[in-house]
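Please review this one:
***
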Amino acid sequence: MMITKKNISRLADIEGIKVADVTMRYFFNAPIRWGYEISLFMFAAVSLMAGAYCLRHRAHVRVDVIYRRFSRRQQAILDVITAGLFFLFLSALLKEGFLGALDSYQLKETTISAYHALLWPIKVVVPLAAALLLLQGLAKFSRDLFYAVSRRELS
């Protein structure tokens, strides 16, 4: 993930909550009831939203031992062929994530801790992140298909 002031700020917020929680717990014997859950939710949101960013910058893990030996056109053709699995997975994640978030909202689902944080706000991030990843995947698919056919990069 690109290091920017915004990203550092989000991670600093998460760490700040953790430090405050640990300080309150061990020095004052009064932990922040919401500290752990909120930092966990924030980290989950940052991690989920990073998927589209990683795809845009070709930062996802793949088996490069074979892939890097192919020409750029062969790589594009392979990416076009395997895109079906990508879109199948994302469509399932989008659908099930949406249904899970909707159920959580309708049931007013909360965590089992003393804080009883609502779960639907973080569950909404799953289909949102899937939708953004799907859009980025469509852009990548279009670029790869264009290159596979024309041997020119799409600007």
Notes: The chain has a mean pLDDT of 90. The helical segments are 5-28, 35-56, 64-67, 72-107, 120-150. The two ends are 22 Å apart (CA to CA). Residues 23 and 31 are 8 Å apart (CA to CA).
